[in-house]
Amino acid sequence: MYDFACEHCDGTVRTRVVEREALRHKGNFVILEDVPIGVCDKCGSRYFDASVLRRVAEIGRGNVPSQRTIEIPVDRYAHA
Ligand SMILES: [Zn+2]
After folding, report:
1. Which fold has domain 4-61?
2. % of the chain residues with pLDDT over 70
3. Which of 40, 54, 60, 74 has its CA 20 to 30 A from that of 27?
């Protein structure tokens, strides 16, 4: 799906299926599971196929219902 030259270095972007990836949609996040992303084999830059971004946008806009919703804790950074 990926297999192209990295934009940031001379590495190659390879397909990796990740268990969970949080993707941004208009300041919020949509989490996709078992999603194929592109990862540069040299610098680790991540790339997302148009089909992945389309899916995130559809769910983010509410056009497609998500399988489930999870709660994510949010807090401000406080130096311990
Ligand atoms: Zn790279």
Report:
1. Ubiquitin-like (UB roll) (3.10.20)
2. 100
3. 40
Q: Which residues surround ligand 1, an ion (CB under 5 A)?
A: 6, 8-9, 11, 40, 42-43, 45
pTM (two decimals)? 0.84
Residue 46 Cα to ligand 1 midpoint, Å, equals 9
Q: How far is the CA of 41 from the centre of ligand 1 (A)?
A: 7
Tens of pLDDT, residues 43-66: 999 999 999 999 999 999 999 999
Phi, psi angle pair for 51, to nearest 5°: -70, -30
**CB distance 72 to 49 below 8 Å:** no
Q: Domains of the chain: which residue ranges?
A: 4-61
**Helix, strand and coil percent figures for the chain, each rounded to 5:** 15, 40, 45
